[in-house]
Amino acid sequence: MVRYLAGGVPLPFRLSAPKGVYGILRQAQNGDLILWVLANVGFKDASVDRMRQEFVPVANVEVGIHVPQGRQAKSVELVRKGQSASFTMDANYAVLTLPAVHIAEVVHLQLA
């Protein structure tokens, strides 16, 4: 459905992860891309008597961030872990695997 609505435009990011893991992509003022990867931490809604909370790490989440035309991926930093990450390029996507996501990870793609 998303691909249909985008009209052939490449998706801004892609995730290969278990159900419930999702991402939110933002662009910094300098043009760098920031992807929040959020693990499924449960469901909290007191109005329907559902208050399940789980903080279980999710392993091997594959992330791909589309590199805009005319830009190049320079480096990737995992902000919450405070470390750099290696990545490969695949069809204009910077691709990396997060070994574990516990609640959230912030992926900073520095562009040149």
Could you describe the 3D structure shown?
The chain is mainly beta and 112 residues long. The protein has one domain: Golgi alpha-mannosidase II (Immunoglobulin-like), CATH 2.60.40.1180. It contains 1 helix and 11 strands; from the N terminus they run αβββββββββββ. It is globular. A hairpin with a 2-residue loop joins strand 9 (88-90) and strand 10. Helices cover 4% and strands 55% of the residues. The chain has one helix at residues 2-6, and strands at 13-16, 22-27, 33-38, 42-45, 50-53, 58-66, 73-78, 83-85, 88-90, 93-101, 104-111. The model has no long low-confidence stretch (mean pLDDT 89).
Please describe the topology of this protein.
Elements (H helix, E strand, L loop, with lengths): L1 H5 L6 E4 L5 E6 L5 E6 L3 E4 L4 E4 L4 E9 L6 E6 L4 E3 L2 E3 L2 E9 L2 E8 L1
Antiparallel strand pairs: 1-6, 2-3, 3-11, 4-5, 6-10, 7-8, 7-11, 9-10
Low-confidence spans: pLDDT under 50, at least 5 residues?
A: none
> In the CATH hierarchy, what is the class?
Mainly Beta
Radius of gyration: 15 Å
The coarse overall form would be globular
State the strand order across the main sheet. 2-3-11-7-8
Profile the largest sheet: 5 strands, antiparallel
* Strand tally: 11
How would you state the average pLDDT, rounded?
Answer: 89
CATH evolutionary superfamily: Golgi alpha-mannosidase II
Give the structural class: mainly beta
Q: Output the CATH topology.
A: Immunoglobulin-like
Ends apart, CA distance between termini: 32 Å
How much of the polypeptide forms β-strand, as a percent range? Answer: over 45%
What's the helix-strand series?
Answer: HEEEEEEEEEEE
Fraction in helix: under 10%
Report the CATH architecture.
Answer: Sandwich
- How would you classify the quaternary structure? single chain
